[in-house]
Amino acid sequence: MPTSIILSTYNAPEWLGLTLEGYLSQTDQDFEVVIADDGSGEETRQLIEQFKKTTDLTIQHVWHADAGFQKCTILNRAIEAANGDYLILSDGDCVPRNDFVAVHKAQAQTGFFLSGGYFKLPMHTSHCMTREAIASGDCFSLNWLKDNGVPNNLKLLKLTQNKLLRELCNKLTPTKRTWNGHNASCFKTDAVRVNGFDERMRYGGEDVEFGSRLRNSGLRAKQIRYHAVCLHLEHERAYINPEDLALNMKIRETTLREGLKYTPHGIKNKR
Questions:
Q1: Which of 60, 104, 210, 264 would bridge with 34, disulfide CB 3.0–4.6 Å?
Q2: For the purposes of burial, counting CB atoms within 10 Å of the CB of 217, is it exposed (0-12), middle (13-18) or buried (19 or more)?
Q3: Phi, then psi, of 231 in degrees rounded to 5
């Protein structure tokens, strides 16, 4: 199944480099990476070029000029550019465990999208992350995480590799099976049928709105929160503002109330 990994990024080359290291370490290497770049500068471009030249990763760099938070627009361009029949969407600050791609492919099913989560690292732990720890898999071990500042609590269950426990946790978790942009997947035909992401939306619930239209179009959601694991590297979020959040909420409410399956402000949008 031809597969494309779509990673969103914006001026975070250190985190993107660590994330790409995670994809170098996948047990299933049959995929391309499409980087949806929301206007990053030269340092990010150079990092991507270095990975293209020095690794076996197949990478497309889809970029547009910086015009503020335009993640939905660049994601739509990345979806268009993707060569895969199956799309796994994540972020350039989410380091995947070595079975991340294999899990998404194994769980993929016609008529469904997959809903995963992440394990959020504290800022201190994020800055302790190294490419060596990713390549060896050490950063996913409880000992490494605890030694580097992660509290010992029930959230560590997200990282369990016990098959029966993972199945049980996926069934019992109260977390809703929404589309989560850091860890979700679907067939490209399904993403295109709902016209991708709504480009009117800025930060705050834009992923969930996309998932709502997938549901309205007839797809069901499958929980893989405890199967497909990634570590989220912490960062500041200077792009959050109340006006954008309020607009996004109105759009989400309209999508739910009217059962919308398609946005006219998506992939097939006049640009």
A1: 60
A2: middle
A3: -100, 125
CA-closest candidate to residue 73, choices 212, 203, 235? 203
pLDDT tens per residue across span 160-194: 676 776 676 666 676 778 899 899 999 999 999 99
Q: DSSP state, 234?
A: P
Euclidean distance between CA atoms 128 and 87, whole angstroms? 30
Q: CA of 229: how far to CAs of 36, 45, 159, 222, in Å?
A: 21, 27, 7, 15
Up-side HSE of residue 265: CA atoms within 13 Å toward CB?
14
Domains and CATH numbers, the chain: 3-258 (3.90.550.10)
Name residue, tokens 């609590």.
153
Rg (CA), the chain: 18
How far apart, in whole angstroms, are the C-alpha atoms of residue 178 and residue 48? 30
User: Lowest mean pLDDT: which of 79-83, 121-125, 149-153?
Assistant: 149-153
